[in-house]
Amino acid sequence: MQDAAVVIGLVLLAVLVGALLPVFYHAVQTLKSVKQFADTTAPRLEHALRELSETAARMNRIGVTLEGEGERLKPLFDSAASLGQTLQNLRRSLQIAGTVLGAVGPALLAGLGAFTARRGRSGDGDAGQESEGDAADEEADAGGGAPVPSMRASEESLDGH
Q: The whole model's pTM is what?
């Protein structure tokens, strides 16, 4: 029985070697093609790496030059930034002033108009002239324009009162 087991083992070993021989052959062929590819590609890779190194060196020189120019132009950029900030502050101030003037301006004009109208009426005690002045003021107010000086105001200026 031992002889049969040895024979079976040898047969299995032969089958295994027979199955592995094509695998080893393909592995050797693959390694040969890889070596051939590496041999043909190596000079091209070396050339590409050399050019890449030269390009990197040029980029470094350009970078150094730009850094120097940037340092030289830094005051200009700082001035431009400062000017921009000043203009922004001016814009904000003008917006605030416009808002305040828009809110207070009509009230001031109305008060000034009332003051001048009252002052124009307070000079003489004559009721007839006062009613003519009131009529002229009402006509001016109805027309939407500035108050027209009344007859009484022109007489007061002649009298010197």
A: 0.35
